[in-house]
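Marked as duplicate of an earlier ticket. Keeping the data here for the record.
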Amino acid sequence: QVQLVESGGGLVQAGGSLRLSCAASGRTFSRYDMGWFRQAPGKEREFVARITRSAIDTSYSDSVKGRFTISRDNAKNTVYLQMNSLMPEDTAVYYCAVRIPGSIWNYWGQGTQVTVSS
């Protein structure tokens, strides 16, 4: 029922910035928590950030805290990930996901590639 489409990935130099977007289908966007995850080649998918449906609370992994910012625009059915001070270690496929508050992340986008060159 929920379809997610990520965009905004690409190639950037170390120290640069990118903003990822994730557009959700339907008119029930505001009922879900939204999250960002990433997966580098040969590694497990890891949590990056999440934002509650009301946007009151955000959470970040230690590796991106202070550099990345998650936000959402419920009127546009879109969640964003602003990534600053990017490092080569941030290179990965980034996925957005949704969940009913308190449940598992059960809907996923197709992913967008982020590559940070040194």
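See parent ticket for discussion. The radius of gyration is 13 Å.
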